[in-house]
Amino acid sequence: MAKTQKKRKKEIETKKKKKKKNEEEEMEMQAQGARVGQEVEALRRVGVSDSVGIDLVPCPPLVIKGDFHNQPFDNDTFDFEFSNVFDHALYPHKFVAEIERTLKPDGVSVLHVALSGRPDKYSANDLFSVKPLVEMFKASKLVHIRKVDGFGLDTEVVFRKKKISKPISS
C-alpha cells in the first residue's frame, strides 16, 4: 500500500477513534470506481469532509487504491456510498456484498446504472431491470428509483441498509 493510502486510511481510523459517544458524528462517505475523485471533491465542497474514493488506480489525495470487490475498509464504516460503476463489476454479488459490509446500519447507498443498454465498452455485466439488483441487496431495502441522464447511465437506485435489531435482554 502506498504511503498516501496508508496515511488516508490512518486518518479515517484516527477520526473514528476521536469521536465521542454523545457527539454528533460527521458523515463518512465512499465512492467506488472514483477515477480522479470528482464525486469525492463535490461532496467535500458541500460539507461531507470525511469522503474518500477507491479505484484500482489511486489518485491522491481523494482516491486511494482499492478493489470494490474487496474494499480496504472495516465493517460498518460509511454512512453513504455512491457508485456509477456497477456495470464494471466482474462479480456483481461480491460488489454488492462489499457495499453492504462497509455501510453502517441505516446507511444509504446510491447506484447509477444503465437499464437501456451497455453504457460503455468496459461493461462487464448488463442490467435490463432493477429487479436483479434489488435481489442482490439482501441486507438493504429499496428506497427510491428514478430516471437520470448521466454518462450513459439512465437510472438511479437508492437503498438503505437495514438496522440490526438487538434482542431484548430479560
TrEMBL record:
GO terms for molecular function: S-adenosylmethionine-dependent methyltransferase activity. Residues 37-110 form the Methyltransferase type domain. Pfam families: Methyltransf_11. InterPro entries: Methyltransf_11 (IPR013216), SAM-dependent_MTases_sf (IPR029063). Residues 1-38 are annotated as: Disordered. Residues 1-20 have a biased composition (Basic residues). Signal peptide: none annotated. SUPFAM superfamilies: S-adenosyl-L-methionine-dependent methyltransferases. This is Methyltransferase type 11 domain-containing protein. It comes from Quercus suber.
